[in-house]
Amino acid sequence: MKMHQRVAEIERICGHTFTDKSLIEAAITHPSAVEGRPVSASYERLEFLGDSILGGIVATDLFERFPEMDEGGLTRIKISLVSGETLSKVSKDLGMAPLIVMGESERGTGARGMHSALENVFESVVGALYLDAGYDATHDFVARVLGDYVSPALALRAVSPKSRLQEVTQREMHCAPEYKLVGEQGPAHDPTFTSVVLVNGMRIGRGEGSSKKSSESVAAQDALERLGYDNDGQASDPPEEPVAFADATD
């Protein structure tokens, strides 16, 4: 499929004709397809922007839609909606999978690689749409494609270790956890990522996984256990030793 055909299809999905076509070209291009070229040639920077824009839109809409719901419930719904599982499914259902430009090194990753790419492309498309069309058009797109997934039932449980940890740190420490990628090993088609999670600059968890997001999830679970919380995010026995590590970067 030619690039102009891919762009036209994304425009149809978004309901917007892009003035700056280079934005949407980058938004659907995996970094493996543009190795050696500037970072702006792939979706990485747009993914960063789109993640923040998406989170803000979802948080605002939930705040207005559920005026009686507490912070914990709103957090659980938000994290479910912007999770990799939800975004990759939505992206696939919208027909984005065949539109993603992948490099040879990434094509061998199979379903795992595509799952991650679908999530990242969704966020990057949101970022591109925001830059080209503005907030209102981006809000309308997000509301349209995620609206069916919004349910107050999602507030009844924490859906991931990252959501549970965010609830705990916001409630107990009045701050959000910060994730940092500290290592990447192995071949391009089968890498292992290492991430740490920090609270107030102190490392409280560490994890490894086959993707950056999975390593963050493992790090969050490690942090919960060290903080003395069980798998449901409920307090169990307090840790016998301090949970913070001396070195926040390893």
Note the main attributes of this structure.
2 domains, 10 helices, single chain, about 50% helix, mainly alpha, disordered C terminus, Ribonuclease iii, N-terminal Endonuclease Domain, Chain A, three-stranded antiparallel β-sheet, Double Stranded RNA Binding Domain, about 250 residues
Report low-confidence residues grouped into runs of 5 or more. 238-250
**Average pLDDT:** 86
Strand elements, count: 3
Quick one: biggest sheet?
Answer: 3 strands, antiparallel
Q: From the helix content, strand content and strand pairing, which structural class follows? A: mainly alpha
Spatial sequence of strands, sheet with the most strands: 1-2-3
Coarse shape: globular
- Highest-level CATH class of the largest domain: Mainly Alpha
Helix content: 40-55%
**Annotated CATH architecture of the largest domain:** Orthogonal Bundle
Radius of gyration: 19 Å
Cα-to-Cα separation, first versus last residue: 43 Å
Q: Roughly what fraction of the amino acids lie in strands?
A: 5-15%
- Please count the helical segments: 10
* N-to-C SSE string, H for helix and E for strand: HHHHHHHHHEEEH
- Tell me the number of structural domains: 2
Q: For this structure, what is the CATH homologous superfamily of the largest domain?
A: Ribonuclease III domain
CATH topology of the largest domain: Ribonuclease iii, N-terminal Endonuclease Domain, Chain A
